[in-house]
């Protein structure tokens, strides 16, 4: 199983309306329940009147289920499935599942194209009427022209960027294909493990640095609180001293007033 095959199967099943999510992890280990559910769902979608059994509790039930599915798919869809690979329910089962999924997907696309072809005339009429109504409104027409211009410019930018990102996307797909092959000693697997270790180490260093900064901030906060408390105490003490001085008459005040009166008398 390659990542591309699993991605294609996932996209086709989603397009067909399969209700359960499918991921790479589902096929790293045998998952007969999912494989049987997908098979039963696709057989019923191909032929709703199918009488395939749903019992998969015992080994005999599973063998009987796969035998019925393989026989019915071969008789009605001319598709030959490998029951042994389906029974393994791992990555090799994806190649068997995708055979039937591809037929159903192509059939659904043909139905969509037919509906689109039948609606072409109605679409032409609706587009013409829409454009006619927009032309009657100059403001809406200018807005529509502006939207078309902006959409064209955005599309041009995206297409131009495609040349730059195509190689990176292909490289990423090849990398994912190599990872999905379950080769634990591959260079891609080692690179992925090394990258994860580096990320974890960097994250740990960031956490330690953040903890040190928090401790330093707490120490500074305590020091500032102590200084503020001391300043507040000094301020209160000074205010009390000022109030006490305002109510105390200096000892030399009597002599000062006496000398002041004597001075006024001398210059009067």
From TrEMBL:
Keywords assigned by UniProt, alphabetized: Cell projection, Cilium, Cilium biogenesis/degradation, Coiled coil
TM ranges: none
Keyword match Coiled coil: yes
Highest taxon listed in the record's lineage: Eukaryota
Gene Ontology CC entries for this record: cilium; intraciliary transport particle B; microtubule organizing center
Keyword Coiled coil: yes
Coiled-coil stretches noted in the UniProt entry, renumbered to this chain: 193-262
Localisation per UniProt entry: Cell projection, Cilium
Gene Ontology terms: biological process: cilium assembly
InterPro entries hit by this protein: Clusterin-associated_protein-1
Family: Belongs to the CLUAP1 family.
Protein's recorded name: Clusterin-associated protein 1
Source organism (scientific name): Globisporangium ultimum (strain ATCC 200006 / CBS 805.95 / DAOM BR144)
